[in-house]
Amino acid sequence: MTKVVVVGAGPAGMAASWQSARSGAEVTLLDANPRAGGQIWRHTGASPVPPKIRVWLKRLEHPHINLRFGCSVIDIQDPILKVHSEAGGLEEVSFDQLILAPGAQELLIPFPGWTLPNVMGAGGALALVKGGMPVKGLRILVAGSGPLLFAVAGNLAKAGAKIIGIAEQATWWSLVKFGMGTTLLNPAKLWEGVGYARHYLPSPFFPGTWIMEAQGDSQVREITLTNGSRRRTFECDLVACGYGLVPSSSLAELAGCHQENNLTVADRFQRTSVENIFCAGEITGIGGVELAITEGEIAGLAASGSETRAGAYVTRLKKQRKFSRLLNRSFSLRDQLKNMPDENTIICRCEDITYGQLKRLEDQCSAKLYTRSGMGPCQGRMCANALKFLLGWELNKVRPPIFPARIGDLISKSIGNGSA
Amino acid sequence: MTPKYDAIVIGAGIVGAACARELHQAGMNVVALDAFKVGCGTTGGSMGHVVVMDDSDAQLHLTSLSRDLWKNLAEEHAEAVEYNPCGTIWVAADEEEMEAVHSKARNYLDHDISVQVLDASSLYSLEPNLREDLKGGLRVVDDCVIYPPYSSRLLLEGIELRENSRVTRILPHQIQLEDGTTLESDIVINACGAAAPQITPELPIQPRKGHLVITDRYPEFCRHQLVELGYLKSAHKMEKESVAFNIQPRLSGQYLVGSSREFAGWDDGVNRSVLGRMLSRACHYMPKLKDLMALRSWTGFRPATPDKLPLIGQWPQVAGLYIAAGHEGLGITSSLGTARLLADEILGRKPAIDPAPYRATRILENPPE
Ligand SMILES: Cc1cc2nc3c(=O)[nH]c(=O)nc-3n(C[C@H](O)[C@H](O)[C@H](O)COP(=O)(O)OP(=O)(O)OC[C@H]3O[C@@H](n4cnc5c(N)ncnc54)[C@H](O)[C@@H]3O)c2cc1C
Ligand SMILES: Cc1cc2nc3c(=O)[nH]c(=O)nc-3n(C[C@H](O)[C@H](O)[C@H](O)COP(=O)(O)OP(=O)(O)OC[C@H]3O[C@@H](n4cnc5c(N)ncnc54)[C@H](O)[C@@H]3O)c2cc1C
């Protein structure tokens, strides 16, 4: 039986696992989270989940899918993954075929005051609320770009927060085009955010607006927005911001899969440049949950030797890719956001390096050598993407482990005391 | 008209930076060139241990001269170089190594280098995270740690620097850059580390790959640079692969863990099996290291010569050319001594120490087999 290993139990990885198992492969699905769902279908298991997610959760009960949660993949050397599990330390998992579906991270653009308590990533806020963080009565500003702001605002409102505004950096005009585009391309709601409309609709919406500054003491108290000419200040208790998504490409890069513009390149069967490694979902491009599922299904079929059946998805895929392109065009970030941080804004939070120190340098390598930026505990996982946007700096080469790991876990079991 | 310099230094790693500074301080009009940027080569990926080593007398003379120079510089610019006067402890695991501790101690004392022989219990009280059954160690009091990339920058202060300028050819009193331009100078110094043979092909320098791991912050986990005495064997034997225990405390509370040696060409990928063996060796000496979090690993290329000594001085094959390269695992330390000797030669000064063992021309006399 073909041994297919899938990394990431978001929509893409769930779809891939199911299709592979159905085609007769023995599937292992690994995810760092305690449950399946990824970003958008994150749930606690306590409250009832929406029917659509339930369908997919049910599919994961297939007898040939071995679910492994709390498992982070920290290194890869074809055909072996190094997996750290909360329960059992480090373990090597081998594969015949690998499907990478690690999704994306949020892009946070630093601004004065962004390090204040209660200023957080939109996705992070969403995860916290879903995890039970009380927000009832809190005045929350949601800012950034992309449809995910609505999903976040909707969820927060549903949990009892008062959304004082949604600040979207894209212009009205591109939003209108996007709105028209989405209805033309897919009459069904493409973004689940729409489902939350009744919760966020009463909140003020500020297109063409972004954050200038957050003020506060022990936590954020006020937020100032700008549209490039005018500014407005609001009192608030929490700011949730996210300027789009950046694919989590480290594993694919480490495995040697060809990358273009930080996206993993795949052929029509979702195969990467490495023969037995496939990819699906946000690491191939930001395109929303439906595209992630389609790509996952194709990858799952192809990885288990059922390429012919994958052909059936071509039309659906084409349409969703078109949507993805529209999405990326409509919400492309305006250059003015590059002025969000000022001289004294801290960019690297691990090493306390300011934007003023960094912008005089030439690239990521100089920043590392001369300021230690990106060398702290997060190893640039936070700031490198912001610097790529702000200063156009290419990311550093990925080195194992991709997440911090116990030294003991980096020693394979077969090694004695290391003496030569 | 192409500008005319008194000296051109090719390579702005720690060695080139030190040479540029020494000549600049002697009043010369110097330019330093680098294919990429200051300290981005081997220097940027190294440990920054400034250490006296006594593999051979020649090594001892050069490293102890260099360490004295570093002490002066680092005490004056402590913050800029992240100076950490932590000393070294050579750790002895068995009686044979303890013998080595005693003879090393005698040798160091003969050369006025302060050391302290540690028995098992004093070793353990200085470094309680070491394994308990070690036999003792040798503490070399004045060894220290600096941060190489910052230090390279400091050395180049006030000196004309051209980054992103790759030299493709060295001609008599002239160099050619990748963009086709040429620069002229009476003196040209090849300080390109492991890449030096790319522009002076006769140089017998080979890249010898090493791995390092950096941990998260654990203040006080270890206070000295700790090296197993077996390190000497590892560094000395020219075998294909070897590992040794070597840990360095950083001022940030983080630790660098090494070390490995491997001839693997220019492949800079992390070799998981060597990395695993290296860490296993380290944990063998410091069992609690197992529970520290490793943030990242990387590799670097030591510029290795066949006789383990650097190549310093005139290269008569090309008029005006001097070499300052091939420092293997000691280039951070011996950069300042190298620069002093090179400047002594160029300026006709009385040499600080006998330069004969390091002369680049020795390899023309005794070509490696
Ligand atoms: C806040 C927010 C709101 C959004 N709202 C919408 C919306 O309303 N509608 C919509 O269509 N899309 C929305 N999106 C986008 C949506 O999340 C994605 O389209 C979809 O989740 C992508 O699925 P995926 O499977 O590629 O990745 P993800 O859902 O991100 O899943 C990736 C999974 O991989 C795991 N993983 C990653 N690396 C490793 C590793 N090394 N080891 C182990 N596990 C790993 C992660 O834990 C995660 O569970 C939103 C995104 C965010 C962040
Ligand atoms: C893992 C590791 C740990 C180490 N730890 C220590 C330690 O603790 N203590 C110690 O003393 N030593 C240590 N070393 C050794 C030390 O790092 C080296 O000996 C030293 O950095 C060599 O410096 P360099 O200036 O000769 O070479 P490099 O730093 O490599 O500098 C050479 C420069 O030349 C440039 N260059 C190359 N070709 C050209 C060209 N054609 N044109 C223009 N520029 C060019 C490169 O870009 C580079 O910047 C360590 C080495 C490694 C690998």
Task: Describe the overall structure.
The complex is a heterodimer of chains A (420) and B (369). By secondary structure, chain A is of the alpha/beta class. In chain A, 29% of the residues lie in helices and 25% in strands. Chain A contains 13 helices and 23 strands. In chain A, helix 1 runs parallel beside helix 8 (288-303) and helix 8 packs antiparallel against helix 10. Chain A has a 5-stranded parallel β-sheet, with helices on one face. In chain A, strands 9-16-10-11-12 form a 5-stranded parallel β-sheet. In chain A, strands 4-5-6 form a 3-stranded antiparallel β-sheet, with no helix packed on it. By secondary structure, chain B is α/β, with parallel strands linked by helices. Chain B folds into 2 domains: 4-45 and 148-204 and 307-365, FAD/NAD(P)-binding domain (3-Layer(bba) Sandwich), CATH 3.50.50; 87-143 and 206-303, D-Amino Acid Oxidase, Chain A, domain 2 (2-Layer Sandwich). Helix content of chain B is 30%, strand content 28%. Chain B contains 10 helices and 18 strands. In chain B, the strands form 3 sheets. In chain B, strands 1, 2, 8, 9, 10, 11, 17 and 18 form an 8-stranded mixed β-sheet that branches. In chain B, helix 1 packs parallel to helix 6. The N and C termini of chain B lie far apart (45 Å). The model of chain B has no long low-confidence stretch (mean pLDDT 95). The chains are: A alpha/beta (420), B alpha/beta (369). Strand 23 of chain A pairs antiparallel with strand 16 of chain B. The structure holds flavin-adenine dinucleotide (2 copies). Residues 7-13, 30-33, 38-40, 72-73, 101-104, 106, 122-123, 126, 147-148, 151-152, 191-193, 248, 251, 281-282, 288-289, 292 of chain A line the site of one flavin-adenine dinucleotide.
